[in-house]
Each structure stands twice: as C-alpha cells, then as structure tokens.
Amino acid sequence: MSRLLSSEETYETVTQQVTDITLHPPARRRWWMLMALSLLMLGIFFLSTGWLFIAGVGIWGLNVPVNWGLDIVNTVWWVGIGHAGTMISALLLVMGQQWRNSLNRFAEAMTLFAAICAALFPILHLGKPELFYWMFPYPNTMDLWPQFRSPLVWDVFSFTAYITVSFLFWYVGMIPDLATMRDKTTKPLARAIYGRLALGWRGTAQHWERWRQAYVAIALITFHLVVTVHSGVAMLFAGGPVPGWHTTIFPPFFVQGAVFSGVAVVILLAVVLRHAFHLGNLLTLKHLDILAKLLLATGLLTAYGYLADAFHAWYSGDIHEMQTLHDRLFGRYAWSAWGSLFLNIVLIQLLWFRRIRRSVPMLFVIALGAAVGMWLERYLLIVTGLYRDFLPSSWHGYETTIWEWGLFIGSIGLFAVLFLLFARFLPLVSMFELKEELAAERRMKGDEE
Amino acid sequence: MNRPWGLLAEFDDSDRLIEAVRRTREAGYTEFEAHTPFPVEGLADALDFQENKIDPLHLAGGIVVGGAALLLQWWINVVDYPLNIGGRPLAAWPAFVLPTFEIATVGATVVGVAAMLYLNGLPGRKTHPLLKMERFHLASDSRFFLSIQASDPVYEPRRTRAFLEGLGPVALDEVPR
Does residue B91 sit within a domain? Predict the structure, then answer.
C-alpha cells in the first residue's frame, strides 16, 4: 500500500500538532463565532421544544393521514448519518484499513452526536415526551410492560444500544490519547481533568495488549450496528401495510442511504477541520480521495435501491403501489423526488473524475448535496407514502410549520455545539494510531532497503 | 525505609526496547514493565505475556445479558402481561430477536470494557510514582520506557542499574517512591 503520511512526520510532530489544537487553540475567534451561531441555533431548539411541551404536537403540521412528518424525517436522517462513523471506526479497523486512522476519532464523535440528535425526535413526537421512560421495561405501579412485538419498541433498544456502544467505543479508543493530553498540558486544572479521564493510563505492554483485545472485540461486536440499527428503523415502515413502505427492499435500501449520507457528512467535517486546524498533512488529499470514492460507491448502491424500489412497486401489480410511485414522481411533493434523484445520483457522477475528487471545494459541494439529497429522500419516502392513502376521502396534504423547522435547525445547532466542544477540548485525531501507522511505514521502508 | 520505587530506563527506538525487555526477562526479572506511546508489535511476545481473558468475557457478557433480555421479553409477553392482538402467538420469537441482539451487544461491550479496565488496574492510583517522573510524559509521546521495580526479588540497586545501562538506554533514572 502506498504511503498516506509524508515521511517528514515523526511521533513528536504528530503529538505536537494534535495536542496544540487543544492546548494552544488556533483560530480562537473563528471558533467563538461558530460557537455563537451554534448556540443561537441551540436556543431555537430549546424554544421549539419548550413550546412543544406547553402546546403539544398540534403546533406541527401533522394530521391524518400524514401523521409522520419532519420529526421522523429528521430522526431517520440523523441516525443514518451516524452509520458512516461506525463503519469507518469499526468495520475498517477490523479490515485493517490504515487510512481510517486519520478519520476515526471525529467520525466516531459525529456518530455519537448524530445518534443523540436522532434519539430526540421520536421522544419529542410522543405527545407526552416527558413520559418517554415508559417505553423501557421497568417494574412500575401501573403494572404496564412494553409491547415487544412492535417495531416501535425495537427502536427504543436500537437507539439505546447504539448510543451506549458508540460512546464506549469512542471513549475507550480515546483513553491513550487522553493520557497524552494529561502529559502534555502544563495547566494544573487541565492536567487534573485529563488525568481523571485517562484513568491513570501508563501505556504498559499489558495495558496495550488488553486494550487491543477489547478494542478489536468491540469493533467486531459493534459493526453489525451499521446494518441492524437502520434496518430496525426501516422495519417501522416496511412492517406497516402502507403502499410505498411495505416492501422487503427497505432495510438494505435504508442502510445504503444511511452510509451514503454519513460519508457525505464525514467529508464535510473533514474539509472544515482540515481547513480550520491546518490538518492537511494528516488528513491528506489521498484521504479525501478515498472518501470521495466511498461516497460514489454508496451513492451507486443507493441508486440501485431507487431502481429496485420502483421495480417492486411495478412488479407487485398493486394499484395502490403504482399510484404511490406516480404520486412520488409527479404529485404534490415531486420536488423531493427530483431533488433527491439529482443530488444523490446525477451530481455524484462527477466523482468518477480524479480531478474533482481531489478538488476540495467541489468535493464539499457534492457532499453537501448528498446530505441535503438524503434528507429530501427521507421526506419523500415518509410524506408521499402517506398523503394519499387507501381511502380517497381521507386524502390530505402536509404543510410544515415553523416549529418543525425550528426543531430541525435546532438539532443541527445541538450537533454543532457538541462537535465544537469536542474539537476544542478533546484530541481530534487519534495520535497513537497515527504513530502506529508511522511505525508500520518505517518498518516497511526498512524491509525494502 | 527509604527504598526507591524502582529504576526507569528510556529508549528512543521500539526495537531497542523489545530487545531490552527480552534480556530483562532472561536475566530473571519478573516485576518490570514496558511503556510505549502506541501498541508495539512483538512487545507482548518479548514479555511472554499471553493472556486471553478479555475475549471470553466479552462473549460471556453478550450471552448472559442477551439471554436475560430474551427471557425478560418472553416472561413479559407470555406470563405477566399477555396481550391478545388478533390471536397472534404471545411467544413471538422472531420479534424478540432484535431487542435481544441489541441488548446483547451492549452487554458484551460493557462487560468487555469493564474487564479490560479491571485487569489493567484502571482507574489506577491518581499519583503513580512513574507519573511523577520528569521525563515519563514522553511515554505517551515518542519515547519507549522500561521500568524495574525495587520489589523484584532479583533487584539489587547497583547491579540492576549496571544491567540497565548495558542495554543502551538514552536516559536512566531512579524512581522515588
């Protein structure tokens, strides 16, 4: 395999560069400006949630027959984004893909924060969100238990498992780097905090050996989450007898789209971090090139999903299925269909060209398009599946309200605040894994000579 | 008693550390540790450290927690809170699979991480003698360390120091208690 890192990198330069981001933050002003904007959006989140708690879900545009709207669009979109992080950190670790080492830390952070944003929406759309804990099986005086035969309950467990496991994987993978932060900082308070978080890590051979066993085992245990969490979400749709939802293609179709949108967001974050913290030597153009190929590949899989979905509608011979397909392409919400087809299928074809894969602005625009396109696709799947159901007398459109948009923008604010805090206070790139990669490259070079 | 905690030798190359560890073990020392900034291939072999407790514990955690989850679902749906929905079977095993699987994942992960931390003695002492050493911060940066504890039966202050010097370290210090 060709080298990803320049031969000028040493163990010292990697430590210095990554710890400096936290200990001697560059671009302090820009960070505060972004933080102010994110906090404003977070304020919108609290405003929209507060009013929701007071007035109830009636403030949203939901009604029969469209009783799932932006709330579910957002939860599906957010949880899908998380999947690329799990894939990069767990699946690619198990497959020994070295290039993940520059990306895995912030991709895992992205997964965790996206999963938190995703988990909020199903809770908020409950009607009585303050009673969400009723969904967990705990002994209570009402003598009530959850109904485990419903995919709605499956989601509770998928999301809980996803957040718990993603957090543990992220944290366990960060312990050695937290020890580096503890050793590098000169401020007593920072030293105390990083010291606590590093749990007294001394990097002994036994530490590393046991840590390696646990880390690889967690990767092996969790990479099924790339598939199962979003399949579980897809079952919520596929399990119901709704035309446009009731198909076996949904679980794989959802997973492909999830990884596709997640890779897009990883690219967006990589480009921003690379620019803001001058990480071009660690997050090289080669890394972006590989990510762009991954985006193209998962995008093509998503395109296959569109085809298969349409084919199944036609092949079923079911008049309602055909009507839904027609509504999707030419009905009231056709903009979401054509928008997602253009952004998710047509635009990414540019990535066949090496020059575009290696052009940072172009890549940023295409990835942003894919993230927006996948949001449109989730909107398409949910709303057009519902607004003209079996009974023409109950057909009714769906108009979003300002509170739904407020919540969506607010959730982006929540993600941004969490991510900015992470970028400011925690090691953004996995230092010890990069050093391991450097050591391997040196050994390879030594063998060649 | 004013006995030191041990001796700390610093190396600038991982291959030299592996060689040093091998020779330390051959010299009969048992209470010594190697510290590296990243997992070094071959170091565990040089230490003859062959422990494989974590993987089975992951598995056990997954089976026990997942089994408990499956049993709980069955008991809730069939025994304690049966709901007749269109006459469908109460013991709906296919439907129980997904929660079981997800909770087993959590169980396996949590138990494995806890086992890793426990076996490693983490969270450790807040002020380990080594963490107070002036140059030891390089152990998480770019240097490779070997520490021999004074409690080792083979340890003899002068002889051990001479032995470590013979291994070609770039620095050698006594670690106060």
Answer: yes
> Tokens 């580096």 map to which residue?
A180
* The pair of three-digit structure tokens given for residue A430, joined into one six-digit string: 């996995």
The CA distance from A304 to the nearest CA of chain B, in Å, is 26
- CB–CB contact A221 B105 (8 Å): yes
Q: pLDDT tens digits for A39-74?
A: 999 999 999 999 999 999 999 988 888 988 899 999
Query: What is the structure's pLDDT at B70?
Result: 95
B30: in domain: no
Residue A240 φ/ψ, nearest 5 degrees: -95, 150
**Coil, helix or strand for A245?**
coil
Question: What number of CA atoms fall less than 13 Å from residue A27's CA on the CB side?
Answer: 16
List CB contacts of A386: < 8 A, sequence separation 6 or more.
A65, A66, A67, A68, A242, A398
Looking at residues A138-149, what average pLDDT do you find? 90
Asked if residue B147 is part of any domain, the answer here is no
Reading the block at residue B163, the tokens are: 């032995």
Half-sphere exposure (Cβ direction) of B144: Cα atoms closer than 13 Å: 23
The beta-carbon neighbor of A232 closest among B14, B88, B98 is B98
The sign of the torsion formed by the CA atoms of A248, A252, A256, A259 equals: positive
Give the domain range for residue B96: 54-119
Domain count along chain B = 1
How much is the pLDDT for A298? 93
Q: In chain A, which residue's Cα lies nearest the Cα of B49? A: A206
Please report the domains of chain A, with CATH numbers, ordered by start residue. Answer: 25-448 (1.20.1630.10)
Residues in A touching B112 (Cβ below 8 Å): 214, 217-218, 221
Under 8 Å between Cβ of A443 and A98: no
Which tokens is A189 given? 């308070």
From the list A137, A147, A208, the residue facing B39 with the nearest CB is A208
Q: In percent, how much of chain A has pLDDT > 90? A: 52
Q: Which of B142, B80, B156, B171 is nearest to A203 (CA)?
A: B142
Cα distance from A197 to chain B (closest Cα, Å)?
Answer: 9
Q: Does residue B5 form part of some domain?
A: no
- What pLDDT digit, counting tens, does each position of A98-124 carry? 888 888 899 999 999 999 999 999 999
pLDDT digits (tens, 9 = 90+) for A279-300: 888 888 999 999 999 999 999 9
Tell me the average pLDDT of chain B: 88
User: Tell me, what's the ipTM?
Assistant: 0.91
